[in-house]
Amino acid sequence: MKIVDATVVVTSPGRNFVTLRVTTDEGPTGLGDATLNGRELAVVSYLSDHVIPLLIGLDPHRVEDTWQSLYRGAYWRRGPVTMAAVAAVDVALWDIKGKAAGLPLYQLLGGASRDRVRTYGHANGKDIPELLDSVRARLAEGYQAVRVQSGVPGLKAVYGVHTTHEDGSPVLHQQARPLVEDWDTDAYLRHAPAVFEAVRAEFGEELPLLHDAHHRLTPVQAARLGKDLEPYRPFWLEDCTPAENQEAFRLIRRHTTTPLAVGEVFNTVHDYQTLITEQLIDYVRSAVTHFGGITPLRKLADLAALHQIKTAPHGPQDISPVGMAAAVHLDLAVHNFGIQEYAGHEPLTDEVFRHAYTFTDGHLHPGEAPGIGVELDTKAAAAHPYDAAYLPVNRLQDGTVHDW
Ligand code: CS2
Ligand code: MG
Q: Whose CA is nearest to atom 4 of ligand 1?
């Protein structure tokens, strides 16, 4: 079998997505997600100008060799743009391999290690009453674990909380120019325990509660928050401090037993080396789309397993249904799977990406379709052209740029 063509499909059914489509001379085609929120076109060029010409004529069954060639052959390694492009190729080749074998991808990854894939949903509110309503809504949808994000008194906008204009229309995070949001760490640290207190009081001690600090704290502030939340037994505290400095987690780990989740912005195992080998975290958060694909992510899962760390792939709406499908196949197969983030997608998105995975009672299943089980409707995709959009930027009260 040979690769005879590959195209990059950019579409914006609700938000921008970048999808690689690989065609072979024996019929099967493969899809891979290459969406990098806010920098989509950089990956389009990396694929179109530098990768696709090298794919033509290759044997699509040589998944590992192709991955190693794209990783080592570029000379300039790692980074979000490179690894999103490599991920798209990797998943497309696994998709082709599954279709050629007539098997769903999870069967090629060792078969099912569980019956279904546990997920968590997003609950948020500009204030605590609105957050409680949002938790209720997620539970009504079947979720059995929720991430709680609340507005902070005195701040106009906070990560994870959908803000609205005066007229009630949603302020979209995807803006033609970055939205500037305001931040005050002390106000946040004062407010966070009260949020958990209220949610526990309303929903009891058993509901798994997750929280995303979104890279905004210093290590000692993260240690403080971890300790303050211990009475509420969070399922995890995510991205509590920018994790380029992996050693910073030694300080946090010394002060709190709150489980820590890190890694959605990582793109190779080297970003995790100290965090995993020194047991400084409890969950690895990389998504197939941002980590170079299925091939390296299954290796990360194995390294994490040696240190009793579980996988918890990133799964917001900017991971396309193609990336989500690949993740759910891996989630079903790896032994040390922990939990899958799942925010669902807009109906418009699901019209473009018809997927075999299903969501029932808070759990996902990849389905039994060969490969990853996603069909891309290119006609529907063409109806939603790219719409330039950026993630927000955060500034402190004195105007200093901060992590968003
Ligand atoms: C967030 C993401 O879901 C999460 O854990 O950190 O929604 C993140 O803000 C976006 O993926 C950025 O594109
Ligand atoms: Mg996050």
A: 316
Query: Mean pLDDT across the stretch 370-398?
Result: 96
pLDDT of 173 reads 53
Both tokens of 173, joined, read 């995070």
Does 191 share its domain with 278? yes
Same domain, 145 and 246: yes
Identify the pLDDT of residue 162: 73
Q: Look at residues 77, 103, 129 and tell me which one is the last residue of a structural domain.
A: 103
CATH assignment of the domain containing 170: 3.20.20.120
370 close to 99: Cβ distance less than 8 angstroms: yes
Buried b or exposed e, range 300-324, using 16+ CB within 10 angstroms: bbeebeebebbbbbbbbbbbbbbbb
Q: Tell me the DSSP string of 275-329.
A: HHHTT--SEE---TTTTT-HHHHHHHHHHHHHTT-EE----STTS-HHHHHHHHH
Residue-wise pLDDT for 193-245, tens only, equals: 999 999 999 999 999 999 999 999 999 999 999 999 999 999 999 999 998 99
Do the beta carbons of residue 105 and residue 326 sit within 8 Å? Answer: yes
Pocket of ligand 1 (CB under 6 A): 37, 212, 214, 264, 314, 316, 318, 341, 391
Torsion angles phi and psi, residue 308, rounded to 5: 55, 35
Type and span of the H or E element at 273: helix 273-277
Q: What is the pLDDT of residues 243-271, one digit of tens each?
A: 899 999 999 999 999 999 999 999 999 99
Identify whether 172 is part of a domain: yes
pLDDT, position 177:
83
**Measured distance CA(152)–CA(125) in Å, rounded:** 10
The ligand placed nearest to the CA atom of residue 318 is 1
Q: Report the C-alpha gap between 173 and 395 in whole angstroms.
A: 15
The mean pLDDT of 275-294, rounded to a whole number, is: 98
Nearest-atom number in ligand 1 for the CA of 38 is 13
**Domain annotation covers residue 352:** yes
Mean pLDDT (the chain, rounded): 96
Q: What is the DSSP string of 44-84?
A: HHIIIIIIHHHHTT--TT-HHHHHHHHHHHTSS--SHHHHH
pTM of this structure: 0.97
Find the ligand nearest to 343 CA: 1
Residue with the two structure tokens 């063409």: 382
Q: Catalytic residues, which ones?
A: 159, 214
How many structural domains comprise the chain? 2
17-24 and 283-284 as β-strands: parallel, antiparallel, unpaired?
unpaired
Residue 176 has pLDDT above 90, yes or no: no
Same domain, 155 and 178: yes
